[in-house]
Amino acid sequence: MFEVVSLIEENPNPKQEEFFLNKDMDIRFNNLVVKIGGSTLGSGDTTFHDLVALQDEGVNPIVVHGGGKLIDKWLGQLGVRPKFVDGLRVTDSDTLEVVIAILTGVVNTSIVSAINQLGGKAVGVSGVDGNIIVGKIDRPELGLVAGEVNVNAEMLKTLIDSGIIPVIAPIATNLNDEEQPCLNANADTVAGAVAIAMQSKKLIFMTDVEGVYDSSRRLIKKITYNQLNKLIESNVIHGGMIPKLNACLKVVDNLCAAHIIDGRGSNALKDCLAKTLIGTSIVKK
Fold first, then answer.
1. Residue 243's closest CA among 193, 198, 281?
2. CATH tag for 5-283 (out of 3.30.1330.10, 3.30.470.20, 3.40.1160.10, 3.40.50.880)
3. I want to staple 126 with a disulfide (CB 3.0 to 4.6 A). Which of 20, 115, 171, 258 is the partner?
4. What pLDDT was estimated at residue 2?
């Protein structure tokens, strides 16, 4: 099951209630997008505490979450072997039912409950609610998977203006098929699209690795748009990191910086926002 109880029992750093941000007004008044991978949450994780602290300080976070490992677990119990192409899940109709159930029913509800129990104000939505996320199939070999997605920014702004942290499950409305109204959408792709639509200043991917590694498995602390493009073209990047970095390319080419950090430890989100050099930062130039 998706572990939440151990994360909300107590704050590992109860005396550090403020983020001590650099009072950066661009960050404070532009929507921060945080993509949480289900595999990052553990007993030492403070992500939910950090999100509530951010909300208390006037920052408007938007959360996009994954849940791939739990989906794989449930598919395995059904005797279905997951398939991936370029880090993207191949999704047939049976797999889509599991994806929707896990993302919207288990993971989303658990995250929203955890944030609210800590004193935050979060509301869970899937991409189909109010057509927040819409897309269409552009790679038939992936099956029922949205490619590029569009974001209903006004719907998200309405939630944020009401003092709510939107927690988004990456299910998209299908633009082209009334018989199959929903599509699986990669959470990294959705997070990038949300950041662009909301004109965010920062997009943070919380993962279960330190960041981006070079061909010698050394952590890259900072990388530019052009350098990242070359790294992807060199086939050094594999699996689930591919959609993350493709999302980063689009984001930094538009308007904001992106970060890929290890979200499993205490204060990871806070440290990233306080400009502590952790993980990998992706910048325009």
1. 193
2. 3.40.1160.10
3. 171
4. 43
